[in-house]
Amino acid sequence: MTVFAAALDVLFADPNIGEDALWKAGGVGSGVPVRVIRKSPDVVVRFGDTSIVLPTNIVDVRKAEVASPAEGDLVEIGTVILKVMGAPVIDQLGLVWTCEAVA
Known about the structure:
With 103 residues, the protein is mainly β. The chain has one domain: Beta Barrel (Thrombin, subunit H). Helix content is 11%, strand content 50%. It has 1 helix and 9 strands, in the order αβββββββββ. The chain has one helix at 3-13; strands at 18-24, 32-39, 42-47, 50-55, 57-62, 74-77, 80-84, 89-90, 96-102. The strands form 2 sheets. It has a 6-stranded antiparallel barrel. It is globular. The relative contact order is 0.21.
């Protein structure tokens, strides 16, 4: 394990940052327990002279827990169910997947 992987483990385990979730590949089955970091940044989209602020859902999950997330996977965080949309992106070190999701 690298020092970066160890640092990520600490971040994901922190109760102020990481959350327990169930990852359901393809949106089916009972799911695999994982730790995720959920972010909800607003994105500003320009349409002509108008700016629209759109809420987003981003879920980070370690590759060690979900080897190959895909569009259509479901992430259940407490009572919230998010569906992965688009292609997940892996970080430069190949340790964390970033997945855009929709409620």
